[in-house]
Amino acid sequence: MSIRKIQCNTKLIFHLALLLTFVVIPQIASAQNDEGIEDYKVRITALWFRSSPTVTMEAAGRNGLVDFNRDFNFNDYSTLSGKFDWKFTHKNHLFFVATPFNQSRGAVLTRTVTFRGQTFTTGLNVNADLQATAYGLGYQYDFIRRKRGHLGLALQVNLFDTKGTLNAAAQVTGDGVHHAAASAEASLLAPIPVAGPDFRFYLISQRLFVEGNLYGMYLFGYGNYLSTFDDVGFALGKHVAVKAGYAYASRLRVNDTSGRVGITLDQRGPTAGFDVSF
Q1: DSSP conformation class of 257
Q2: Alpha-carbon distance 212 to 23, whole Å?
Q3: Is 18 helix (H, G, I), strand (E, B) or coil?
Q4: Fewer C-beta neighbours within 10 Å, C or N terminus of the chain?
Q5: What is the pLDDT of residues 139-184, one digit of tens each?
Q6: Separation between Cα atoms, residue 162 and residue 253, nearest integer Å
Q7: What is the DSSP string of 160-224?
Q8: Integer Cα distance of 83 and 99 in angstroms
């Protein structure tokens, strides 16, 4: 991770910690013990997510490193993120989240790439396909839950199901050389446990609110993970709320030495969506 990215991550964590410490926690704790609109059993969240990805995938060592942004010009694209939250007691939640990150692009290579033992030379027209779906199952306990909102700690196990594929049809490159069809594929199924705070704070009479979370984990030689979803919302009534914000959805690095496959996946961008509670 570059120095600039480390500085950005540090600033993000520092600002969220200040918000929780000096604004959110005192206000929620001082509110009356009455949940009001937050008295729900099930909450379903659906978000549109405009992602700006940074993706590299490594198979069989550094010589097999594919930079999907540099080599195939992967760019912004839209995807969806969903969450199912079951608040089975006053302060206890079980939840499930899912976000797909799938993209395909074709490009003429400007450098020779070796991936899973297959070499794709400069000048070849190659199609790259990346399918990376993140699933998460978690538990949350709310240390504070009042009419003005909640502050809780979530423990979550993320499962990243990732597959990268390069395909080149039989073709003749600009130098007149004939190339046979070629294909290579690498996949990685990575479980990542994460933990962190989750909060919602109502600013105006259980209508206007801010909310966010910050999940992370450092797994030593295996990898690391950091994510946050933060937004501003407005409750249209007891059952429906609309919201918009920004997500640093994942800063993931996984090194699978047994399969000699590694992946770096960054996803960030604006979000918009709604909650349905009942």
Answers
A1: T
A2: 13
A3: helix
A4: C
A5: 999 999 988 899 999 999 998 888 889 999 999 988 889 999 999 9
A6: 12
A7: EEEEEEEEE-SEE-TTS-EE--EEEEEEEEEEEEEEEEEEEEEEETTTEEEEEE-EEEE-GGGEE
A8: 9
Q: Is 205 exposed, middle or buried (0-12, 13-18, 19+ CB in 10 A)?
A: exposed
Q: What is the pTM of this model?
A: 0.81
- Distance separating alpha carbons of residues 16 and 2, to the nearest angstrom: 21
Neighbours of 26 (CB within 10 A): 10
Q: Taking CA 162 as the corner, what is the angle to CA 70 and CA 155, rounded to the nearest 5 degrees?
A: 115
Spatial separation of the C-alpha atoms in residues 79 and 81, rounded to whole Å: 7
Specify whether the CB–CB gap between 158 and 225 falls below 8 A: yes
Second-level CATH architecture of 3-277: Beta Barrel (2.40)
The residue whose two tokens read 């604006």 is 270
Q: Which has the closest alpha carbon to 81: 63, 66, 96?
A: 96
Measured between alpha carbons, how far is 194 from 191 in angstroms, rounded to an integer?
Answer: 10
